[in-house]
Amino acid sequence: MLFYNGITGLQKGNFLQPDQNVKLLDLSAIFITIPLIAGPATITAAVTFPEHYGKLITIVAITVAIGINLVLLLNAIRIGKLLNRFNLMNALIHITGLIVATIGAQMVFTGISNFIATLMA
Fold first, then answer.
1. Which domain holds residue 66?
2. DSSP alpha helices (H): ranges in the chain?
3. Cα 72 from Cα 33, distance rounded (Å)
4. Are the CB atoms for 6 and 39 separated by under 8 Å?
5. Residue 6 to residue 8: CA distance in whole angstroms
6. Overall number of domains in the chain
7. CA distance 91 to 87
């Protein structure tokens, strides 16, 4: 899902293009797969950090990421106006799409690598 959403953002310049007939309330289930509040770094940390760094560092990393998200969301309107004024929003969406697609691909490659390593053991 991360890879697909990243490619969509990279190619189309947006992560979600709702149909005209769809109500906004009907889209709430879809947002689980789109990295809005829990961004790619937070999702990756939650999945991979405990194995490599332990639970305490994982909890700290997620808490810091949520704190940064809180500050950004509280200032989202001002940040959005600033990005639009300097015409940077589209470039930011494409860069974010590339990062999300890369993280999704890396997760798949890591899973395949671990599966092959398990078969060889």
1. 2-14+40-120
2. 2-12, 40-53, 55-74, 76-85, 89-120
3. 20
4. no
5. 5
6. 1
7. 8
Alpha-carbon span 19 to 71, nearest angstrom: 31
pLDDT in tens, 18-74: 677 777 666 554 444 445 566 666 677 678 888 888 889 888 877 887 888 789 889
Q: Which two tokens stand for residue 23?
A: 């109500």
What tokens does 114 get?
Answer: 């671990």
pTM, 2 dp: 0.56
- Residue 75 backbone dihedrals phi, psi, to 5 degrees: -110, 20
How many residues are there in the chain? 121
CA of residue 43 relative to chain centroid, distance: 7
Cα–Cα distance for residue pair 25/32, rounded to 1 Å: 14
Q: Residue 87 domain-assigned?
A: yes
Measured CA angle at 72 (ends 49, 17), to 5 deg: 90
Distance (Å, rounded) from C-alpha 79 to C-alpha 83? 6
Q: Alpha-carbon distance 51 to 29, whole Å?
A: 29
Please report how many Cα atoms fall inside a 13 Å half-sphere around the Cα of residue 29, on the Cβ side. 3
Residue 8 lies in a domain: yes
